[in-house]
Structures are given as structure tokens and as C-alpha cells.
Write a structure and sequence with these properties.
Layout (H helix, E strand, L loop, with lengths): L4 E4 L6 H12 L2 E4 H9 L3 H22 L7 E4 L8 H10 L1 E6 L2 H11 L10 H19 L2 E4 L5 H18 L2
Parallel strand pairs: 1-3, 1-4, 2-3, 4-5
Helix pairs in contact: 1-7, 2-3
Length: about 180
């Protein structure tokens, strides 16, 4: 039986797009933790940030992630900041194989800014904010992940195939 797959990484790394392709390859259901937060609250992430702040958003996110422990047959795309809380890092490990999707910082920034929906980048200098956040999170992603996959030079389909291959190697080595 295939394990669950948990995709972590900074905004713009491809968690959703690679996750959907990985879901197609495995037959697992694709689950986006941000979408679960929106559904649970009945309002958008920017609205949650505006009314509750980042801390309030992280509380909701933590509850949503905890509810996924024990659910089988999924590819989970976690929010980029979910790993900031130790409790979430522990929960993600319980859910499945944790894959850190990474890419060149310039590519990540271009992808993140293109969407225009990133509350954390709504600052006077989005690139400076982006660089500070990425720098602060890199070591946490590394420590939280079972492995890192650099998607800088591969398309999303190839990334999904290679993530599956690497995850299956890790799964076969586990007791």
C-alpha cells in the first residue's frame, strides 16, 4: 500500500501543482490544507489574516492538520508556514512521508508574486520580506522533511514522478 505524501515548502515551490500530479499518479486524494482552513472558517485566507492575524490563522491550520492524522490515501499540500509550529511538524510526520519541494529563490519569488494572493507579501518591499521569510524557514523545512526535492530544472509532471520514486525508496527502507 502506498503511503501518504506530505508536501512542504515555501510559497511558489509547486506544492499544489506537483501535489495534484502526484495524486493522479498514485490514485490518492489531493488535499490542500489552505483549502481545508478556508472551508472550516467559511472565509478566505486574506480575510482570516485580516481579522485574526497570522497567529490566528496558524491556530486554525494546526487544528485542520491534526484532523488528518490516521487518514489514508492522500497527497497533502501543506501551507508554506505550517512547519513553523513544532506541533505541526510532528503531525505532518504522522500523516506521511514529508517531502520538501524547493527551487531557486528567484523562481520561487516570481511564482509567489504572480498570484497576488500572498498575505505575507503585502508589504512595501515584497522581495525583502520574501527573502527574510525564506531564510528563516529553510532550516526548518530541512529538519521537518524526509527528503528535499529541487524542482528548479524539471516540469511538474517530472517532479511528481521523481518525488514518487524517491518517496518509495524511503518507504521501502522503513521498518
Amino acid at each position: 500500500m502506498l503511503p501518504n505524501f506530505v508536501l512542504i515548502g515555501f510559497m511558489g515551490c509547486g506544492k499544489s501543482s506537483v501535489g495534484r500530479r502526484l495524486s493522479s499518479l498514485t490514485g490518492h486524494r489531493f488535499v490542500d490544507s489552505d483549502e481545508l482552513v478556508v472551508k472550516a472558517e467559511g472565509r478566505s485566507i486574506p480575510e482570516i489574516f485580516a481579522s485574526c492575524g497570522e497567529e490566528g490563522f496558524r491556530e486554525i491550520e494546526q487544528r485542520v492538520l491534526a484532523d488528518l492524522v490516521g487518514v489514508a490515501g492522500m497527497v497533502l499540500s501543506s501551507g508554506g508556514g505550517a512547519i513553523l509550529r513544532e506541533a505541526n511538524r510532528e503531525v505532518l510526520k504522522k500523516i506521511g512521508i514529508v517531502v520538501w519541494l524547493d527551487s531557486d529563490p528567484n523562481i520561487l519569488f516570481d511564482r509567489a508574486i504572480r498570484s497576488g494572493k500572498r498575505p505575507l507579501l503585502q508589504t512595501p518591499n515584497p522581495r525583502e520580506t520574501f527573502d527574510q521569510l525564506l531564510s528563516a524557514r529553510r532550516a526548518i523545512y530541512e529538519s521537518a522533511a524526509d527528503f528535499r526535492f529541487d524542482s528548479t530544472h524539471v516540469n511538474q509532471d517530472e517532479a511528481a514522478r521523481k518525488v514518487l520514486e524517491q518517496a518509495m525508496r524511503i518507504q521501502s527502507q522503513r521498518p
